[in-house]
Amino acid sequence: FSAAIVITEQPVSVSVPVGYSFALRCRAEACTSLQYQWFCQHQSVCCQIPGATEQDLLITAQQTQLYTCRINDIYRNAVFSNWVKVEVHQCVGRGLLPQLWRGEPVIILNPIEQKVEVGKPLQLQCAAMGVPAPSFQWYRNGNVLEHQKKKKLWINHAKVSDSGTYLCCASNSHGEHWTNAVDVHVGEQSQPTSGFNTLIPAEHLQCCCLVFLLATDKIALLVGNNHYQHHPNLMAPVTDVFELSLLLKQLGFQVVSLLD
C-alpha cells in the first residue's frame, strides 16, 4: 500500500547579501510519516547536505547555489521539491539592509545611460535583493516592455525607436522598488561634440516618469544619497529611506524609493 506525497509548501528562491541568515522551507503531506533530506548544487555538482533532515534548512549565505528537498515515506516513495536558487551578492554587505528588513526588494545596481549606434546591441542591467527573489519588469517611456522581464535588458539590433527613458521595477510579495530612470539614445555614429551631453538628463525625467506610472492622489518620492564626491559614504540615508517608506505606506501613500 502506498499513498501520494503532496508538497504543500515549496521552497522559494532568494537574493541576499553574503553573511545573511535565513531558512528555506518545505512542507509535505501524506498518510504516513515523512522524512526530509536537502541537497545543494554548485557548479554542476549535486550533493546531499549532511544533517539537513528537517523541514526548514537554515542557511548563512556564502555562495550562490541551487537547493532542492527530497521527501520520503515509509514505503520508499519519494518526491523532490522545486529547485530554488540562493543568489548571494558577495560585494554587498548586510549594512545596506534596513534594520527591520522583511524581504522587500532592495535595488543594488542601477542601469546606466547608453548611447548606441543603429544596429548595435543595446544592454541595460540592474540587480535587486529580496526574499523571495524579486521578479523584474522593464519600462520605456512609461510603457511596459512585455518581453523584458529579466535583470538584463537585451536588444540584439537597436533601432532609433528604441531610444527613450528606461527604468526597471523589482517586485516580490513584500512590495516593489524602482531603479533610476536612464536615457538611451540610438542613432548613427555620434560626431565629436564640445563635451556636453545633448540628451535630456535622466534625473529631469525620472520624477515625471515615475509619477506617471504610479498615478494616485498621495505620492511620496524618497531619495537617499550616500555617495558623495567630497564626503565619506554615509549609511544613515539608506536606512532612513526604508524606515520612512514603511511609515508613509501605513499612511496610505504610494512610495517611490530611490538610492543615489
Total of domains: 3
Cα-atom radius of gyration: 22 Å
Oligomer: single chain
The CATH homologous superfamily of the largest domain corresponds to Immunoglobulins
User: Main sheet?
Assistant: 6 strands, mixed
* Quantity of strands, as a count: 22
Strand content: 35-45%
Q: What is the first-to-last residue Cα distance?
A: 62 Å
Low-confidence stretches: 192-216
CATH C-level class of the largest domain = Mainly Beta
GO molecular function: cysteine-type endopeptidase activity
Keywords: Disulfide bond, Immunoglobulin domain
Protein name: MALT1 protein
InterPro entries: Caspase-like_dom_sf (IPR029030), Caspase-related_regulators (IPR052039), Ig-like_dom (IPR007110), Ig-like_dom_sf (IPR036179), Ig-like_fold (IPR013783), Ig_sub (IPR003599), Ig_sub2 (IPR003598), Pept_C14_caspase (IPR011600)
Protein model, in words:
It is a single chain. It contains two helices and 22 strands. A hairpin with a 2-residue loop joins β18 (164-172) and β19 (175-178). Strands 2, 5, 6, 8, 9 and 10 form a six-stranded mixed beta sheet that branches. The protein has three domains: 6-89, Immunoglobulin-like (Sandwich), CATH 2.60.40.10; 106-187, Immunoglobulin-like, CATH 2.60.40; 219-259, no CATH class. Mean pLDDT is 84; it is low at 192-216. Helix content is 10%, strand content 42%. By secondary structure, it is mainly β. One of its GO terms (molecular function) is cysteine-type endopeptidase activity. Residues 3-81, 105-185 form the Ig-like domain.
